[in-house]
Amino acid sequence: MDLNVIITNAIAVFLDPSTLLLVIVGTFMGLVFGALPGLTSTMGVAILIPLTFTLEPVQAIGMMLGTYVGGMAGGAVSAILLNIPGTPSAVVTCLDGYPMAKQGRGAEALGWAAFASGFGSIISWLILVILSPYLARLCTGFGSPEYAALAFFGLTIIAAVSGKSIIKGIIAGLIGVSLSFVGVDPIWGDLRFTFGNINLMSGISTMPALIGFYSIPQILMSCTDKNNTEKVDIKLHNFVPSLKKLFQSMVNIIRSSVIGTIIGIIPATGGNIASFLAYDQEKRFSKVPASFGKGNEQGVIASEAANNGVCGGALIPMLTLGIPGDSVTAILLGGLMIHGLKPGPALFLESPDVVVGIFTTLFIATVVMVLIQMVGIKLFIKVLNVPVHYLTAALVILSLVGSYALRNNFFDVILTLVLGILGYFMAKAKFPMAPTVLGLVLGAMFEGEIRRSLKMSAGAVSIFFTRPVACVIILIALTVVVTNIVKAIRKQNEAQ
Amino acid sequence: MLSKQIVTVALGIAMILSMAACSKTQNSTTVSSEASVPAVSSEPDSTTSPEKAPEKTAEITKPITLIVPWNAGGGTDIMARYLQPIFKNELGIDLTIKNVEGGGSAVGLTEVIASKPDGYTLGLASSSYLALVAQGRMDAGIDKTTNIVTVSEDPIILVAKANGKYADAKAFVDAAKANPGKVSIGVPGSNNVNQAFAALLGRGADTEFNFLPFDGASRVSADIIGGHIDAGVVKPSEAITQIQSGDLIALGVFSNNRLTLLPETPTFAEVGYDVFSLGQITQMSYIIGPAGMDPEMQKTLAELFQKALQSNDFQKFADERVFVCSPIIGDELDSYINDIYAGMEKVSTEIFS
Predict the structure, then answer these.
(1) What is the pTM of this model?
(2) Cβ contact, residue pair B5, A222, below 8 Å
(3) CB spacing of B190 vs A392 below 8 angstroms
(4) Residues A339-346: what's their mean pLDDT?
């Protein structure tokens, strides 16, 4: 594309007040959808579909992009303040965000989350704008063996997100993996553990599990625990990250954003896998790994930069190949096609106004997202002052309405409550929840991909080692596991 | 303090449950108040006496709910939502879309079948529903529905990498014959029309393929372009972008006629393989209502939908989204559905068992 064309089109977007307004409204809507447990950015974008019939393509896509970016970032608010991830991508944000809030550093955590989300979006945006034609090949570089290796790598992260007891983390992870068995068998198509109930045919999805494992135990705990009236002293003064600290966190921000972008580029993976991977890397390279899970702001930064990095990444296969990178871009693709636009290399040549419009509105949405969050922090933080019994009642309603709204199905409410009771006993016994979510998401992916790989190779395990990418990922994962075990043994010997 | 919290939580739960209960009672009250509407059977409690209200013409007096058993924003959902403005502007009727996803359309369609057959709750069923019923996965028979009108037909195509190993369908099948069970075909989903066609091609050509089920067609396309699998069986709309950009080629069409959009691509009959040996199966979608609908209402709805589907607006949309929209209604529709169902029954006993 000609530079002149790019600049004129970008300026045209900036000068069009109705487009700007739609992007702002979309971003705000995304933040709300992301922050409320039970409403996801996918739902927000889907709701906008009928609107796009009448809007101009750039306006429609811009509004949907706003919701996408906002939704990814909004999940952090409830994760930090309530320990309830608003979206699957914010599970990792809970790990350090909530301890920070408990220490009175909630505003600081929200500030870091907003900045990290913004940087994640901008870095992935740069990669999208500058490199997307060159990265098209990367989108298709992953076959089943590589996906299987990635899921295997992901499952080894359980150790990093287990908290105090690795054994409990592994058990929690296996509970998640077991839950992923429910539904249609990924290869043979047989029904497993559905007990003749059609509602279980498509398996246990992430959102009922998220509400069940995070919201419901929280609600039950507040009813049964007597000593929950402790007041948190909220510090508001330092919620804008200082330049010095920002500079010190730059390596983490860039690494996590790039991880997010790469995970975004790979089709069928999403924000939560990205944030798990980024968190694990940051913890590994940190000088104080033991402080993670206890309120280290770098954990929040890694998670939020990575999940927003996914946004720009997921647009790359959508624009260059017409293949969506995740569930939201699948809907965006539908939105483009309603307007008769065919994604692919031709889109860049035939409709540069649309491509530039997408780039520009994504940038605007990112800036708007950070601004709304920074302005909103003083408001959000008030949630911590709400008396527990009011907050709990509101959470009950949000959780149950949210779980119904997912698929307009009352069965999901029952499923959420059943998982909630399981989650309550797990929480009572001090099991960590993040490994369960990780197990549920990656268990399904790992099983499907490894079995498909073996079907590709007619049962030969060598397929995982003859393909360079898969082999490298597996070797890294194995090295990590072995070094962790060696470290643990050494520690034990020293202690004796 | 403690008891206060328990009370608030209990109140919250009670509120939610009463909301659910309300929505149910509301349904039944609205149904009984509709007894005066000509289209509804005169006895609100009987669901199985459609002949009791033999009015000449049925009138549509309130919004029609169309249940889409797939996720909001998906291909089928967008198709249904495209009908909304056409119904509103050209027919003056409100069409409400309700997404009830799950179980490969089983959950939403079960809700349709269980609703009042007054014509105001309809569903967008597809070949997937017929496959589910034929395989006994859904507690429903095809006699549980009133068929209204066909919406779309998506002739499945076999795609492979452009400028890759296979120049045409013959080369592809020959490769499979040389190495039975080695050539892989990606299938979006499993035990569906897509896989049935791929298996039928194997039968017709007397060879075997290696089927690899995926979650959805986008992974199939990506894996073919990346060279991880050899081919895929997808709807034209799912691959047209990549075909037009020169990443994929369509090797053959599982249909009796060539597609207007892919005039170069031969049908498998032309190449010399019979893919209809178990009957006229096809990937299609159609509007259903619960069984026991008043025939006048059925006719009125069929004609309304037919009008909307044949509008220039929707036909243009069908061309853009690459599906065939030639609405069939009445007895012709019933025999069309029965033929596909008979085919799917044979497929499920002979291929998927």
Answers:
(1) 0.86
(2) yes
(3) no
(4) 79
